[in-house]
Amino acid sequence: MWSYEEKAALSGFLTIAGVDEAGRGPLAGPVVSAAVVLPVDFPSEGITDSKKLSPGKRDRLYDRIVKKAIAVGVGMAEPEEIDTINILQASLLSMERAVHDLHVIPDYLLIDGIFTISYDAPQEAIKKGDMLSISIASASIVAKVTRDRIMKSYDLIYPDYGLAGHKGYPTKNHKDAIAAFGVSPIHRKSFKGVKEYL
Length: 198
Hints:
Elements: H1 3-10, E1 16-22, E2 31-37, H2 55-68, E3 71-77, H3 79-85, H4 87-100, E4 108-112, E5 123-126, H5 134-157, H6 163-166, H7 172-181
């Protein structure tokens, strides 16, 4: 899990940030990204792709990452932005915002997926990077936990949709709720499963 970070360090880079997003697939809520810069002595036990972890394990690892990381940044793109520029561009924008939110300036980025972002530093896009890079995996955990907490807070504002359970993903219950109660302000109006009810 350290091989990409070690390769970048051997090339002379000093501040290496892993970047990942959560929430490309949901029908509601923002897409959330995180950027994480880890120290070389970071305890990596248990860190992996956030989708492979239970909510409780993610929360515990989130606390460890936030406590021990050199820097953690978070960026979001809201549903209105997703509808305007599309989910891919919104995901990349949220990643840029996460990197700019760091209190250190990274000189190398490791990014989950196949796209780099608009940022003036060398970058490496890594397919399935959240399973291959400790920094990207840590970013995936921070992004996922942050987004889940946002959706739980939205559940208090829009209780008809069950957001605390499915976090905005297109479950049967969620789609049935949209059909019954209509589209809320946090739904992605360009997405199939939502736009039919506008």
